[in-house]
Structures are given as structure tokens and as C-alpha cells.
From TrEMBL:
Keywords: Endonuclease, Hydrolase, Mitochondrion, Nuclease. The keyword Nuclease applies. GO terms for molecular function: endonuclease activity. The keyword Hydrolase applies. It comes from Cladobotryum mycophilum. The gene is orf265. This is GIY-YIG endonuclease.
Amino acid sequence: MNYYFKGDFSLVGKFLPLLHKEGLKAFKLVIFKLDSNKFSSQDALILEQYYLLDKEFNLNTLRVVNAGSSKGDALYVYDLTCSTLYYHAKSKIELKRVLKIHTETSKKYVDSKIPYLNKFLLLSYPIPTALTSNISVEELVSIMQKERQDLYTLGTRRSISVELEIKEGNTFVDSWGHTLNFDSLTSCIEYLSKLGLTIKRDTLTKYIKNEKVFHNFLCKYSDKTLPDNFEEVGLIIDEYKKLKVDTYLDSLIVNRKNKSRLVKG
């Protein structure tokens, strides 16, 4: 509300020009207090949507409630052994707002088996055996900020080393079975571009996560990017990723079985 009280805004829409002309005295503020023991945040959104659609309130130009971070896929922040859960976010937007992890960064690291800031794993699914950490959000943010500063000092924050394995049947280079090393995704993409192959950074990241071959090139994160004894954790992640897929397929089968059918009499 401070934004409106300062009066530093462009006179667009219906509400702002009227506020500028008539002042706050032309309006009244009604606050709905919902008991958190009886109502959920979703109930508040439903109430807001009701009033947005009410024609009596004719200054609303947007008729759909902004659900904010309630939309999106959940993300989980674990330690490197997947034994401790540090934070559970309902979306990438929440992760950015609370832990200052940019949405593009979380997209790159989630389910990738690559440690974020050398201390954390970002997963899109819960690990049932993990225990919830007792450190506060403020402490977690402080730890992450210190790691960011350390990596900035070392000049390694934005670079993740990758390897490009040349698979048999590759028609762009002859060195089948060899592996090329790059200090970042960008340099790998530039190399592929010189060969006449175009791939976006986000697409290559997805290929790495899914171990998908691109024109008989297999790109993966370098082993030196990973901490020692990380192979076991990688197996844990693979196992739960498989469990997540199997659970999803089972739910589809159940939904098909329970789907109602129209029977002609």
C-alpha cells in the first residue's frame, strides 16, 4: 500500500486516475480476517476471486486472482546425502523470494545431481527418509549467501564443467569414444555451434539431466564438479526419480479404471 500513498505511479487503468483525482477520502478499506485454523490460503484466493467477479466493484481491470507462488511445482532443498531437508518450496518463485535462488538457476540444478553452492541438492520430489533440519530460514539464507560470496571470490560460481562424449556413428567428428572437456555449458554450446549444431542452453541442460544423446554427442557434468563419494547419492536420486515416474504411471492407470463411461440403454 505504501506504493499508493507515495503517489509515485503512472495514471493508468481505472483505479489510479480516480485515486489521483479524488484522493484516499473517496475510498474505504474493508479487511477480511480469516481464522487460519478454519480457512486455508486457498480459501482466501477463492474469496478474492469472488469479489473480482462482482460487477459492483467496477474498478477492477483484472478479473482473475493472482495465485502467486501457490502455482508451480514443489522443490526440495537437501544436503548432499539426501538425509536432511532444509527447505520445501511450493514453486520456483517461492524459492527465489525466500532463498534468493533465481528461477533459471533452480531450473539448471533441480534433479541434476549437481550440488548447488557445493552444499545443497535441489530435487522436485520428497525423500521420505530425510529428516527436517532445525535451522531457521534466516540461517539457511546466511549460509547460502556466504557460499555465494566464496564462489564469487574464487570466480567459479557461474561455471559448471561439462564433458562431451563422442558416440559411435557420429558424423560431425571422427574421434569416436573420446571425451572433450569444457569449463562451462556456454563453451560446449559454442563448440557444437562451430560444427553447425544449434542447441539452447535450457535444452542442453535437459539433455544432461535425462542423459539424452544429441547427434551422437552425450553431454554430462564433469566428475570434478561433484564432491567425493557422490556416486551413492546419485543412485539414491535415480531410485527416487524412478519411484516418482512409477507412481505417476500407477495414478494414470487408476484414473483410467475409475473414469466414468456413458452407457446407452
